[in-house]
Amino acid sequence: MPSCIKRLDLGGRDVIDELLKRLMERGALSSMNNNDNKNMNHYYQCHDQVKKIKEKECSIMKETPRMRSHQCDDMMSSSTFNRFKSSSSFKQYVLPEGGVLQLCERDLQECGEIMFRPERFLQIGTSADNLTGLRDLIVEAVNDAAVDCRKDLFGNLVLSGGNTLMPNMTDRVSMEVIERVPATIRIKVVAPPERLHSAWIGGSILTSLSTFQPQWITRGEYHEVGPSVVFRKTLV
């Protein structure tokens, strides 16, 4: 079902970038110019450390925007960032070299919202300006399938990838999709323990099947047809 394949060009790096931006805005990290070669090593060191913070400390907000009050929803906007800055609770994070960062717990939750509401975070006019959030992407993908398959697909939503390891992701995806489908549709979101490597595991199983052998692309085919041979042999 090629028409059901959807893509969201957002991932773990975007969550890390959002958290890094918030830490810099709060003064937890020194500001830097990404175009300045003298500061690039410092930037990459900060990015690597923020990646570890994201993996250890970040979580997904359980409530959907509809479930949150208008006031709480308004706090998601970067334009109102300073209005609630002083009211946020903080936690300490000890760096490997012994330094201590003061992390805003609200930031640790809200940076993951970029996957659900990218339009609230990305700059207007960028190539990612028209990105669809994760909820709408799931619903669109299922609705593009045959009508008699949709109920089964909504009942078997499987999470995979590093971002899905963040706490509350399973509950949030379930609640988001429930808001978009009829009440008669049963939603079930599955989060396998091995979901960090699910794509690789699935790929290894698929390529080991005898029925997959005709889909292998030879060097000769690639040189003759070019990159488009991938779509010709795999998405038919």
Supply the key terms.
globular, 10 helices, 236 residues, mainly alpha, Nucleotidyltransferase, domain 5
Write the layout of secondary structure elements.
Elements lengths: L11 H14 L11 H21 L12 H5 L15 E5 L5 E5 H6 L23 H10 L3 H8 L2 E2 L10 H10 L10 E2 L7 H11 L10 H7 L3 H6 L2
Parallel strand pairs: 3-4
Antiparallel strand pairs: 1-2
Family: Belongs to the actin family.
Pfam families: Actin
Organism: Naegleria fowleri
Folded structure, characterized:
The chain has 236 residues and is mostly helical. It has a single domain (2-62, 83-190), classed as Nucleotidyltransferase, domain 5 (2-Layer Sandwich). It is 42% helix and 6% strand. It contains 10 helices and 4 strands. It has a two-stranded antiparallel ribbon with strand order 1-2. The longest helix has 21 residues, at 37-57.
Measured between the Cα atoms of the first and last residue, the distance is: 8 Å
Q: Using the CA coordinates, give the radius of gyration.
A: 21 Å
Give the mean pLDDT: 83
Low-confidence stretches: 31-37, 79-86
The figure for the number of domains is: 1
The main sheet comes to: 2 strands, antiparallel
Which structural class matches the secondary elements?
mainly alpha
Cross-sheet strand order for the largest sheet = 1-2
CATH superfamily: ATPase, nucleotide binding domain
Order of helices and strands: HHHEEHHHEHEHHH
Give the overall shape, derived from the CA principal axes: globular
The CATH level-2 architecture is identified as: 2-Layer Sandwich
By DSSP, the count of extended strands is 4
Question: What is the helix tally?
Answer: 10
The CATH topology turns out to be Nucleotidyltransferase, domain 5
